[in-house]
Amino acid sequence: HLVWAALLELHCSLFTFVLVTGQPLPKNKRPKEPGENRIKPTNKKVKPKIPKIKDRDAADAPPKTQSIMIHMMDKGRFQKPAATLSLTAGQTLELRCKGNKIEWSYPAYLDTFKDSRLSVKQQERYGQLTLANSTAADTGEFSCWGQLCQGYVCRRDETKTGSTYILFTEKGELFVPSPSYFDVVYLNPDRQAVVPCRVTVLSAKVTLHREFPAKEIPANGTDIVYDVKRGFVYLQPHADHQGVVYCKAEAGGKSQISVKYQLLYVEVPRGPPSTTILASSNKVRSGDDISVLCTVLGEPDVEVEFRWIYPGQKDERPVTIQDSWRLIHRGLGHTTRISQSTLTIEDFETIDVGYYICTAHNLQGETTVATTVESS
């Protein structure tokens, strides 16, 4: 009976296959025995499929950056500016950066003299920088970036930036004009020093010379290199580099000499800011105005940031804080940077009595000073 049952089951299976496929089993096929290997060995070579592997997870991938800067030209034409751009002095420069909150950076020369030729505006969909009657002195880096804001707190959007270095070519000016005929460059053993001989003609050949003894100083790429955007860069300054130097530029059959630079070696290591604090008065009558001045004396190119703590801060007492800096000459060949922060309070009240604390910060550290103001 078991044999007949097995044959009947096999017959039904074959009959079902024909009904489903409409085709009988091939003659060379046979039913597999229980436990028989179902993979038929073959000599056919099959190319294995290699799964595609992403370079990195989406979360780890760096954000894609896009240039948002556009250079507006004549007759309504525009294009994305190259990394380095040469323009004729006298033209009006117009740059636009897409975004509803754009910040700009441009040559410090334009800020130092509060140049009225420069205009920066925020339109509905783009930021706009316009520089009228451009001159060779305007040569430098122009850049923009978008802002990401949450309430009143904003940060730079690194995915939306744009920049171009613009050389404004002016007849008779191979070098970017300097505000003085003689400048000082400090040589520190722990950082690079720059002799800022920048040119307005990209193809100009620029060389560095020592005044005494008179000789050319080679930019060998090891100790000294030339960067068109910065000038001659001393990679590892040392005492032997001291002296008076100047640069010479040649282009189009013409040559020009730059201003002179006094190179001074500074052996004193840098440190936290040397800070003082002074109130306009330490005893103030109700209703009077008061100002507290925080001052730092330091090297010319060392930037300082200030932070304040004052009595009415928790109660959001309205104050005015203004930061500024300037260079002063202290003796022959020595220049000092004065950085200052002034906190001003109008209509002095009881809430303003107490400690006024100023913290000055640079790359080497910070210094905190304080003074008290009382009610008279």
Automatic annotation (TrEMBL):
Q: Which residue spans traverse the membrane?
A: none
Basic residues bias located where? 41-51
Where is the protein situated, by its record's location annotation? Secreted
Where are the stretches annotated Disordered?
A: 25-64
Pfam families, A to Z = Ig_3, VEGFR-1-like_Ig-like
Is the keyword DNA damage in the record? no
**Stretches of the chain forming a coiled coil according to its record:** none
- GO function terms (MF aspect): platelet-derived growth factor receptor activity
The region annotated as signal peptide is: 1-22
Report the main location listed first in the record. secreted
**Keyword Zinc-finger among record annotations:** no
Q: Which UniProt keywords apply?
A: Disulfide bond, Glycoprotein, Immunoglobulin domain, Repeat, Secreted, Signal
Q: Which Gene3D superfamilies match?
A: Immunoglobulins (2.60.40.10)
One GO cellular component, as annotated: extracellular region
Q: Which domain of life is it from?
A: Eukaryota
Q: Where is the Ig-like domain?
A: 63-144, 273-374
Q: How does it assemble?
A: Forms a complex composed of PDGFRL, TNK2 and GRB2.
What is this protein's name? Platelet-derived growth factor receptor-like protein
Native source organism of the sequence: Neovison vison
